[in-house]
Structure formats: C-alpha cells, structure tokens
Amino acid sequence: MNPLRKEIEELENTLYRKKEELKRLEENCHHVWGDSVYNPETYYDQVTDGYEGHGSDFYPITRRVEKKKSRWSQTCTKCGKTRYAYNQKAVKFEPDFGN
Ligand SMILES: [Zn+2]
C-alpha cells in the first residue's frame, strides 16, 4: 500500500478527533461573547440580462453576481466560537423631545 494513503487516513482520523474535541469544548464553555462586529456574508446570485434565440432555441443570458447580506458576528473570548446574527433589534429607548 502506498504510504501516502496510510498517512492521509491517519490525518483524517486526527482531524475528526480534533473536531469532536473542539465541539465538546464549545458545548461546555460558558461563552463570554466579545464585541459585535458588522461582518456581511458574501453570496452569489444569478441575474438574467435578457433572452436570446427564437422558437425552441430560446435561452436566457445570465451572469453570476456577488452580493452581500447584512450579518453581525461575535466571537467567544474563551473558546473562540463565532456566532452570527442576521437581524437587529432596538436595545435602547430615549426621551423624544421632538427635535
Ligand atoms: Zn465559548
């Protein structure tokens, strides 16, 4: 057997064990969340610019565009886990003097 296969198998096992270890650590952590950071998520969307052809040979002209979705993140200062939020809520009220 190619020694590289054995090495890859061992590394995959190690990776699996480390991920499980990190998962347990995150589950048992009493998270202390750091500051909220605006951290928009990048995603790709398909837009149609028009159509070409005629009859049964009719197809849309599309292109892939990069878009951003509003998102905020916080990272735990103890275990390093990051959590994400896609919505905001009002957290403070002030007297409204009308100016
Ligand atoms: Zn934590």
Structure description:
With 99 residues, the chain is an alpha+beta fold. Helices cover 26% and strands 37% of the residues. The chain has 1 helix and 5 strands, in the order αβββββ. It has one helix at 3-28; strands at residues 37-38, 41-54, 57-69, 72-75, 82-85. It has a 3-stranded antiparallel sheet, with no helix packed on it. The protein has a two-stranded antiparallel ribbon with strand order 2-3. The radius of gyration is 24 Å and the shape is flat. The chain binds zinc ion (ZN).
State the total count of DSSP E strands: 5
List the total number of helices: 1
Distance between the termini: 79 Å
- How helix-rich are the residues, as a percent range? 25-40%
In N-to-C order, the SSE pattern is HEEEEE
Describe the SSE topology.
Elements: H1 3-28, E1 37-38, E2 41-54, E3 57-69, E4 72-75, E5 82-85
Antiparallel strand pairs: 1-4, 2-3, 4-5
The protein binds zinc ion.
Short account of what is shown:
Helix content is 26%, strand content 37%. The protein contains one helix and five strands.
Relevant terms:
three-stranded antiparallel sheet; 1 helix; 5 strands; alpha+beta; binds zinc ion; 99 residues
